[in-house]
Design brief:
Blueprint (H helix, E strand, L loop, with lengths): L59 E7 L9 H9 L3 E2 L2 E8 L5 H13 L3 E7 L6 E4 L1 E3 L2 E2 L11 E3 L8 E3 L4 H10 L4 E4 L6 H13 L7 E7 L3 H7 L8 H15 L2
Parallel strand pairs: 1-3, 1-4, 4-11, 5-10
Antiparallel strand pairs: 2-3, 5-11, 6-9, 7-8
Helix pairs in contact: 1-6, 3-6
Amino acid sequence: MGGGDRALPRGAPDRARLGRVAPEPRGRARPGGPARGGGRAPARGRAPARRALSYTGPAVILVTGFEPFGGHTLNPSEGLAKAVDGRRVGAHAVQGLVLPVHHAEAWAALAPVLEATAPAAVVHLGLAAGRARVGLERVALNVMDYEVADNAGFRAAGEPCVPGGPAAYLATLPLDELRRALTAEGIPAYVSNSAGTYLCNQTLYRTLHAVRELARPPRVGFVHFPLLPAMVAASGLEQPSMDFPLMLRAVEVILAVLAR
């Protein structure tokens, strides 16, 4: 499957201000974001005031997935993002977005949508071959170290996601609450302490870095899914898998918790 239908919402700006956030001053950063800013102009040495976006539409939960990569012909996260696109969960509208597996174009596709919709929550989805459970990622590291090249043939080797950015950010989704809700539904899930160093980690880091200055930053996190059974069958390897309906139910449970 391809991601050629990645349409931006009407009114999305050509260049997203979220993509031009300056690096945090040395010594101020901490995982999870800096201290809250005030409403006045910042005095010298103080953190800048947080800004608000002008979006006035319904509350949005943004769900992203990725195209296939690394020799796979499928990526369940792509199908999941498409499956929930356009749904309503409580008072929230769900918007799905499929990102390219490209070191630069993934953020170029995501940043304008963040700017245009000012989502209440951002749930990034991705594939983690070898995992048997739904992985709720706790931390994003400021490093790109690709085990395989992206779909443009680029292979990062120890480069920062954001030069000058903090070493790490903590995801801001309610991870323990999500884990309990998923396991109560019979869906195997756990809180993971490593999102890897590929596009998944990079996308989570850049999103958390970009929203840190907003007056009302969205809750942001990343969820990894196992291989689909068809992907394991095609590989001929002994690997865990999860069927798509159970994955979709997991996303539905996550959305229901976030929409409360």
